[in-house]
Specification:
Blueprint: H1 3-22, E1 42-45, H2 58-70, E2 75-78, H3 90-102, E3 108-112, H4 118-130, E4 135-138, H5 149-162, E5 168-173, H6 175-178, H7 184-190, E6 196-201, H8 206-215, E7 220-223, H9 229-234, E8 239-241, H10 248-259, H11 265-281, H12 288-299, H13 315-331
Parallel strand pairs: 1-2, 1-8, 2-3, 3-4, 4-5, 5-6, 6-7
Length: 332
């Protein structure tokens, strides 16, 4: 193909892209869909309870959702990393979302629907939209490492084009596990979609998170770690936290204080102190088995279990967790 023809085709393609952009809801002045009225909300990155036979336990999950609502969570992310999504089948992931959708209790529900292939990701995303999800959290395809930017743009564009614009889409930045980071360039290439809501940043890199927030102040750049929590709040951003499984009330109190214009740092320090106590006692509450055991102890219900390859809680960890929970209760 000669250069003149290539140039002409390039101009046609660019013009078509421009028409598509101009015709989008965002270009016509519609508000961006962030999936919630406020950005400064607290979502628990919920665990997924299993029974002793390692089957998903719908009744237990219903109780877990009610517990989070009772303790002040604004929302819940189902089937994220803490929800062990890679350990569940497509059918099971749909069943988990259906329980969440039926038991929202006024909370904002974000479903983690990502897989390593776009047909299943789209299928799970559409299912979530049909069963009460307010938004999605979508990890990039994670088998192929260092994929080209154009390939990631194409992958996410297939998703955006397939789901309704009423469904907010968040990109999942967790390269420590996925090995595929969410870049500024990727977000910029997808911003013409009015339902690009933001990201969850689950890395411990505060300077990098500050760059995300500075570059995309109109999106909800949610912190996925407690180490970035106060900065996120100071910029009006939200958070999705695994720590919310055990410290839901403490974190919810921090958000409530911030939104009321009060001192949120005191609530943050209370949360940090209690978390440090649990870790010092050796309960390994950052691991799936101990975390689920601790949550079931808090709720006063039978033990929740995790799926392999994650290990079960040991007797020593159980004792440490019970001791820590008792001390936290005394603190008030």
């Amino acid at each position: 193909m000669d250069a003149t023809r290539r140039d002409a085709l390039g101009m046609v393609g660019a013009a078509a892209a421009g028409v598509a952009f101009a015709g989008s809801a965002l270009a016509q002045g519609a508000a961006r869909n962030l999936g919630s009225k406020s950005k400064t909300l607290f979502w628990v990155a919920s665990c997924t309870p299993c029974d002793k036979n390692l089957k998903f336990d719908p009744a237990a999950f219903k109780d877990v959702l009610g517990w989070f609502q009772h303790n002040g969570a604004d929302g819940v992310v189902v089937l994220g990393t803490t929800g062990e999504y890679p350990s569940f089948s497509m059918a099971e992931r749909k069943a988990v979302m259906e329980v969440a959708g039926k038991n929202k209790g006024g909370m904002n529900i974000i479903c983690s629907s990502g897989t390593s292939n776009f047909p299943e990701t789209i299928e799970l995303s559409k299912h979530a939209a049909d069963h009460g999800a307010d938004g999605l959290l979508v990890i990039p395809p994670f088998y192929y490492k260092n994929p080209p930017l154009a390939g990631l743009i194409r992958y996410y564009s297939l998703l955006f084009d397939a789901v309704p614009q009423s469904l907010a889409v968040n990109l999942y930045h967790i390269p420590s596990l996925s090995a595929v980071p969410i870049s500024h360039e990727l977000l910029k290439a997808l911003k013409h979609y009015p339902n690009l809501a933001g990201i969850k940043d689950s890395e411990e890199d505060l300077p990098q998170f500050k760059q995300f927030v500075a570059a995309f102040p109109d999106l909800n750049m949610r912190s996925g770690t407690d180490t970035k929590l106060e900065f996120a709040l100071s910029k009006g951003m939200g958070a999705i936290l695994a720590e919310g499984n055990l410290f839901c009330r403490q974190i919810a109190d921090m958000f409530a204080a911030f939104r009321a214009g009060k001192d949120s740092h005191a609530a943050f320090m209370k949360f940090q102190t209690q978390q440090a106590l649990m870790r010092k006692l050796g309960g390994e509450i950052d691991s799936y088995g101990p975390m689920k055991y601790a949550l079931s102890q808090q709720m006063g219900v039978p033990q929740f279990y995790q799926r392999p390859p994650n290990l079960d809680v040991t007797d020593a960890q159980k004792a440490a967790i019970r001791k820590g929970l008792a001390q936290i209760k005394e603190m008030g």
